[in-house]
Design brief:
The chain has 11 helices and 15 strands. With 368 residues, the protein is α+β, with helices and mostly antiparallel strands. It has 3 domains: 3-15 and 24-198, Intergrase catalytic core (hpI Integrase, Chain A, Orthogonal Bundle), CATH 1.10.443.10; 234-280, OB fold (Dihydrolipoamide Acetyltransferase, E2P), CATH 2.40.50.100; 287-362, Beta Barrel (OB fold (Dihydrolipoamide Acetyltransferase, E2P)), CATH 2.40.50.100.
């Protein structure tokens, strides 16, 4: 991502009616919709690349297209820069057993290399592709091809599936991956680490998590994203702070990367089955119908263990139900679905401050 894409809140456009929001050190602002691809467009573009590769008329063309496909997949899922993807060394820069690709270069005595998590299924596919001896031009040459040629093919594939040519650029795909992960509630430190950004203005609640812990969080979300096996809309990622076991059930407190505390009560058997212990990285999910909303600070007066102050980002009204998307202090989006009658009584509008709250019994834990 270019430096021009790294903006602070004070530089980011904001609707005049919207109140100031605290993003806790956010240095990435979501660009205008016409400047990045959403997940549906990214999937369509990937399908276009795959079909184009399979349709190669000759073996030499197939080899060339497979190289382009490999570069696309690394940029699409690892947020790599074009030159980073094109200079990968299959023998050095992949840790397939752990699911990592290593991007960047060592410069003198300092290293600017970073490990980026890839989905397990994608690792198997890439491993299979690069094991093809016909692709091997020497260990360090397997990915190498003319950057101008790569760009032309990216533009062509975008236009082939109805996407504006300029949105097929490698830089746009890298930016789109960052937006996609942030919209999936991957915490900002993990997105910054993935992109290779420095993080000088992170709050202490972020800094208290190690690089290994942030990588664990990233692995949880990319695997969930790749498999799409869950319908839960709200996900919180962090580490277990306390475990208080009772006769039948156990109370578990999780500290998120944004510094919030999420509390859940689960059975003692679940604690054993998930292998829970203090310090373990975990995902906590809450379905949207279990999330309640309140105005004017009334969320503080209820018995729910989990209460967060935020701002209404989006409202989708229906005849029976209304969906609210609320952004809390660290930028995490929380979705709530209420009846339309309740929505009218609430009288919330986009940009309004509100409280979201949910019971500890509504939280489901997802372990690796």
């Amino acid at each position: 991502m270019k430096k021009s894409d790294q903006t602070t809140d004070s530089q980011s456009p904001r609707p005049p009616s919207a109140p100031e929001r605290n993003y806790h050190g956010r240095i990435f602002s979501t660009p205008e919709k016409d400047k990045y691809l959403d997940s549906v467009q990214l999937d369509r573009l990937e399908k276009s690349f795959r079909e184009w590769t399979k349709a190669a008329p000759r073996p030499d063309v197939l080899r060339s297209r497979r190289r382009i496909l490999l570069i696309f997949l690394i940029i699409r899922y690892a947020g790599a820069k074009l030159h980073e993807a094109a200079n990968l060394d299959p023998g050095r820069d992949f840790e397939f057993d752990k699911g990592f690709v290593i991007l960047g270069r060592a410069r003198g005595k300092s290293s600017h290399r970073r490990k980026v998590q890839l989905p397990e299924k994608l690792c198997h596919e890439i491993r299979s592709l690069i094991s093809d001896p016909s692709l091997n031009k020497g260990k360090q040459g397997m990915f190498q091809t003319d950057p101008g040629f790569v760009r032309r093919k990216f533009y062509e594939r975008a236009e082939a599936c109805g996407i504006p040519k300029q949105l097929g650029a490698p830089e746009v795909l890298r930016k789109s991956r960052a937006v996609e992960l942030m919209q999936s509630n991957l915490p900002l430190p993990a997105v910054q680490m993935l992109l290779g950004h420095s993080t000088p203005n992170l709050t202490s609640s972020f800094v208290s998590f190690s690089e290994e812990e942030i990588q664990q969080v990233t692995r949880l979300i990319v695997e969930k994203e790749f498999s799409r096996k869950t319908s839960a809309r709200n996900s919180f990622f962090g580490s277990i702070r306390t475990i208080e076991q009772g006769d039948i059930q156990t109370r578990v407190e999780i500290v998120t990367l944004g510094g919030h505390v999420v509390t859940t009560v689960i059975t003692n058997d679940s604690v054993q089955r998930l292998g829970l212990k203090p310090g373990k990285t975990i995902a906590a999910e809450v379905k949207a119908p279990w999330v309640m909303l309140s105005k004017n600070g009334h969320g503080l007066e209820c018995s729910a263990d989990n209460r967060f102050n935020g701002t209404v980002d989006k409202i989708t009204r229906g005849a029976i139900n209304t969906e609210y998307v609320v952004r809390i202090a660290d930028g995490t989006e929380v979705c709530a679905i209420v009846t339309s009658d309740s929505s009218r009584r609430l009288g919330l509008a986009e940009g309004d401050e509100t409280w979201v709250f949910f019971s500890s019994y509504s939280v489901v834990l997802m372990s690796e």
